[in-house]
Amino acid sequence: MASTPVLALPDFSQPFIVECDASDAGLGAVLQQQNRPIAYFSRPLAARHVKLPAYEKELVGLAKAIQHWRPYLWGRSFIIRTDHYSLKFLLEQRIITSPQQRWLSKLMGFDFTVEYRAGRENVVADALSRQYENFVVLAAVSTPQLDYLEDIKAAINSSIALQQLRDQILNGELKDYWSFKDGLLIYKG
């Protein structure tokens, strides 16, 4: 899985396997057949899901991945692999919270079994879910300092070659690539 990321074409006569994972920052999953990736799924964790317990984050990731690959999975039996052991009993346990009921309702109608896979073996989905960790956005507002424009205008007026270029532009001889605007020579602009 970690070698060349060439996606295989789906074979609808073979079972699909969905490996999924959730981290504190994102969700990740891989759709595969015979240990070959068919498609990848990854997205940052929504702000409303960040504070959820691990079980519910994993359930959200599982449900989002299955909904994402609905055209591949609907009407077929498939396997879900997760590194969260309690999800193995997803269909057998009593659902207590309304968010759990809501996410489980999104899985109704799909024919799947859940298998536990240790986190160290679930490397692709784990990597996809963690790609949003330590994501820092630097937002800065700056205003351009245009002090140097007067120096450029003075250089144009003091250079014979630039004056000739300016005259050719103003006479229309070089209008495909050059323009003269506000006392400045502009190339392709």
Straight-line distance between termini: 48 Å
The percent of residues in helical segments reads 25-40%
Tally of separate helices: 6
- What value does the average pLDDT take? 79
Strand order of the largest sheet: 3-2-1-4-5
Order of helices and strands: EEEHHEHEHHHEE
Sketch the major β-sheet: 5 strands, mixed
Domain Reverse transcriptase RNase H-like: 11-110
Organism: Striga hermonthica (Purple witchweed)
Protein name: Reverse transcriptase RNase H-like domain-containing protein
Keywords: Endonuclease, Hydrolase, Nuclease, Nucleotidyltransferase, RNA-directed DNA polymerase, Transferase
Question: What layout of secondary structure does this protein have?
Answer:
Blueprint (H helix, E strand, L loop, with lengths): L15 E7 L3 E8 L2 E9 L9 H15 L1 H4 L3 E6 L15 H8 L5 E6 L6 H8 L17 H11 L1 H11 L7 E4 L2 E4 L2
Parallel strand pairs: 1-4, 4-5
Antiparallel strand pairs: 1-2, 2-3, 6-7
Helix pairs in contact: 1-3, 5-6
Task: Describe the structure using short key phrases.
189 residues; five-stranded mixed sheet; two-stranded antiparallel ribbon; hydrolase; Reverse transcriptase RNase H-like domain-containing protein; RNA-directed DNA polymerase; transferase; nucleotidyltransferase
